[in-house]
């Protein structure tokens, strides 16, 4: 089954939200794709929780079960890049340098979005942007011309 890999820094907030939204809509659309997510520096994420409160809140507001994302943050390794059919990093300015340093042979295969972390963007605006982009991606992969409606 083809898989989308969502990458962010801590695998705690943005990438986990993207993973859950993608898997939710892919399942609803009976799309033969699944998503997984990884972090480039999970040690920078808070250690007191496995998932950001912003992610939990945004998923609950959309009635998306937490089961659509992994139980814990996970670090990106090359095997993940090899496994993925499509690779998306959530913030070009933040993640491109990390990927170039750690996985230089893979930089050209990564699609970079522009969704800022909570230090630069309101979490509700960021998750709304991720939601819209992920729904558009699911529609594209399922052959649709327009994004899926919101949950």
How would you characterize the overall build of this protein?
- With 151 residues, the protein is an alpha/beta fold.
- The protein has 5 helices and 4 strands.
- It has helices at residues 14-28, 53-61, 78-83, 92-102, 123-141; strands at 3-8, 34-39, 86-89, 110-112.
- A 4-stranded parallel β-sheet has the order 2-1-3-4, with helices on both faces.
- Helix 1 (14-28) links the parallel strand 1 (3-8) and strand 2 (34-39).
- Helix 1 (14-28) runs parallel beside helix 2 (53-61) and helix 1 (14-28) packs parallel to helix 5 (123-141).
- The mean pLDDT is 90.
What layout of secondary structure does this protein have?
Elements: E1 3-8, H1 14-28, E2 34-39, H2 53-61, H3 78-83, E3 86-89, H4 92-102, E4 110-112, H5 123-141
Parallel strand pairs: 1-2, 1-3, 3-4
């Amino acid at each position: 089954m083809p898989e989308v890999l969502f990458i962010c820094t801590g695998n705690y907030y943005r990438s986990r939200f993207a993973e859950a939204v993608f898997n939710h809509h892919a399942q609803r659309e009976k799309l033969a794709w699944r998503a997984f997510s990884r972090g480039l520096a999970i040690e920078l994420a808070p250690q007191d929780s496995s998932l950001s409160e912003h992610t939990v809140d945004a998923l609950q507001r959309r009635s998306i079960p937490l089961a659509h994302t992994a139980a814990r943050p996970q670090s990106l390794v090359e095997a993940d890049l090899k496994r993925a059919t499509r690779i998306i990093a959530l913030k070009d300015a933040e993640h491109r340098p990390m990927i170039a340093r750690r996985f230089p042979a893979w930089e050209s295969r990564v699609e970079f979005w522009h969704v800022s972390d909570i230090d630069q963007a309101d979490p509700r605006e960021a998750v709304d942007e991720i939601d819209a982009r992920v729904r558009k991606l699911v529609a594209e992969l399922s052959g649709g011309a327009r994004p899926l409606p919101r949950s």
